[in-house]
């Protein structure tokens, strides 16, 4: 680490105590950006990096609600409005007990680069609550969402800040949030994305993060004249991203061996096929059960309390949460012959794990590039809402493929190393940075 990077990170630590995920995300970006900034005095002199790590605004609020027993519950709500240089704040809402300000700042920071990479005019934000939808009735989730929006509505808007889903926030939650927004403001507009198709949503938005991830993997494989056909894939998570990543892998002729939730993973050596995937979708989206039920139904192994990275594979797709793949997992994957790791989740691989992949010259795609398809189609949902029009499934899917192709090209442009190896992390960071930094320069000291 050079002296400027060390100095920058030390300052950051002093200014952001108790926020390890935020420090981790910024350190990763700063390490590749600072040498670039040092060669571009206009960015250095205008202190773009020092500005970009400070949220433009953070809102924190009380969320009181009544549970089914009539008792009062109190949660904490947040919206981090990180950067609006290239468009209105845009990014998901996370409902999970682990949510705190540091986690949301890390996610909002990642969103700056990701949204820039999509090529669409979207700034960056992220929000959420420590509310846990797991184990709550539909009525309780609705009560919570209504209370959350009763404060959030003041801070969001179709042209200012457009939230969407993330962990714990899917179609059901977006519906309740939208209903309450409309009730308070009287406005039917594109204030949220991930809406239902009948009320302003875009076709392919639910699929977009998982599909986009697989399109990105295809782009990487193509540089080695390979395809997904016959490849063995391990996946973590069983939520929105994991389900549609699995669906696209199966469609492309790959064999999906694992899927997980926060309690453990299942290993199905025969492969998860379309019918088994439908079972998973029903289990997770409708009955909201645990993944171990899959093992009982399809007679395969279940590993309680473990993550799937010890299973031999060609491609690994971490699709659950941050820091779910550590250095030992990375070593096990490399030893097992894995040659491609692409992040469906945000920052699922620890920095030490990434170092192992880079050393072994395994393809490694950071989330800000590989999972950008979700927010990209959210951007397309905003365009359709502005036009008051709905595009066909094929049109949105083709646009998604085009965007993932372009993001891959940006990574090649800025990430090609002297030995020919592509460092996708560096490529994504620099490419995402340049557009935002130029916009900030043009807009003066704001
Ligand atoms: N939805 C989207 O469009 C996008 C999502 N992402 C990222 O993808 C990841 C998954 O999001 P999404 O699929 O939407 O979320 P979901 O809530 O739909 O699914 C999350 C999955 O991850 C598991 N999980 C959550 N927390 C943990 C944990 N601490 N340890 C182990 N497993 C965990 C959940 O298990 P359980 O049910 O047991 O909690 C569940 O299987 C997140 O990192 C998110 O930020 C990135 C881009 C866009
Ligand atoms: O669709 C969106 O606005 C946000 C998706 C998201 O939260 C993410 O990209 O991490």
UniProtKB/TrEMBL annotation:
Annotated keywords: NAD, Oxidoreductase
Pfam families linked to this entry: ELFV_dehydrog (PF00208), ELFV_dehydrog_N (PF02812)
Coiled coil regions, renumbered to chain: none
PANTHER family, alphabetized: NADP-SPECIFIC GLUTAMATE DEHYDROGENASE 1-RELATED
All residue ranges annotated as the Glutamate/phenylalanine/leucine/valine/L-tryptophan dehydrogenase C-terminal domain in the record: 202-444
Subunit architecture: Homohexamer.
Protein's gene: gdhA
Name of the protein: Glutamate dehydrogenase
CDD domains from the UniProt entry: NAD_bind_2_Glu_DH
Family statement drawn from the similarity comment of this UniProt entry: Belongs to the Glu/Leu/Phe/Val dehydrogenases family.
UniProt cross-references to InterPro entries, sorted A to Z: Aminoacid_DH-like_N_sf, Glu/Leu/Phe/Val/Trp_DH, Glu/Leu/Phe/Val/Trp_DH_C, Glu/Leu/Phe/Val/Trp_DH_dimer, Glu_DH, Glu_Leu_Phe_Val_DH, NAD(P)-bd_dom_sf, NAD_bind_Glu_DH
SUPFAM superfamilies on file: Aminoacid dehydrogenase-like, N-terminal domain, NAD(P)-binding Rossmann-fold domains
